[in-house]
Each structure stands twice: as structure tokens, then as C-alpha cells.
Design a protein that fits this description.
The structure is a single chain. A hairpin with a 6-residue loop joins strand 4 and strand 5. The chain starts with a strand and ends with a strand. By secondary structure, it is mainly beta. The radius of gyration is 13 Å and the shape is globular. The protein is built from no helices and ten strands. The protein has a six-stranded mixed beta sheet, with no helix packed on it. A four-stranded antiparallel beta sheet has the order 1-3-8-7, with no helix packed on it.
């Protein structure tokens, strides 16, 4: 099981950028496909980006072309670069394996507003 600590996030205007980072504990990080999930008020938590153990990314249609996911297995880090942010990107972002393993750690708030 992967335990994670998420950092980054914040408040930006539309068109702005943010970078989220997720640091995993333990030595098994490299064995898991990983993902970034987003929860917005009134909606279920959704997978917005994922990356396989080999580094192949996948993006939800809503973020493709604007978000970039990356991983560093040596540092046990999962990152998400968010560019050209839109108000609909507002939500709490979480890091977890894909498919999800265990519970949800603390996420980080992203707020996009003018």
C-alpha cells in the first residue's frame, strides 16, 4: 500500500498555472500505476490523470492538453503540472494508486477564480 503526502495547490486566476506534488512513503511506489483525482462540490471524485509504472500517461478529456502528469520512481514522487486553468478545475486534488488502494490521504485545494 502506498501512503502519500500532497503539496502544492492554491488560488489562481483563469489561465494561470499550478504544480502539485505527491511524495510517497515506502519502497513500493514504483510498482503501482498512479493517478491524480479531483473532487468538486456535488460530484464524485474523478480520475483526471494517471501514469503507468512505465511512464505512459492518460488524461481525462477535460484536462488533456492542459495538465501534465509525471513520476520519478527514484524520488517516489508523482507530479501534476496544471496549465491554462479554468474555473471548472476548482476542487480538491488527491493522489492515489490507479486503481485506488486503501483510503484517501489529505488532498490539496485548487481554486480557479477571477
Amino acid at each position: 500500500q502506498v501512503q502519500v503526502a500532497v503539496s502544492g495547490g492554491g488560488s489562481v486566476q483563469p489561465g494561470g498555472s499550478l504544480r502539485l506534488s505527491c511524495r510517497a512513503s515506502g519502497s513500493t511506489f514504483s510498482r503501482y500505476n498512479m493517478g491524480w483525482y479531483r473532487q468538486t462540490p456535488g460530484k464524485s471524485r474523478e480520475l483526471v490523470a494517471s501514469v503507468t509504472t512505465g511512464g505512459t500517461p492518460w488524461y481525462a478529456d477535460s484536462v488533456r492538453g492542459r495538465f501534465t502528469i509525471s513520476r520519478d520512481n527514484v524520488k517516489r514522487e508523482l507530479n501534476l503540472q496544471l496549465n491554462n486553468l479554468e474555473p471548472d478545475d476548482t476542487g480538491v486534488y488527491y493522489c492515489n494508486a490507479n486503481p485506488v488502494l486503501g483510503g484517501w490521504g489529505r488532498g490539496t485545494q485548487v481554486t480557479v477564480s477571477s
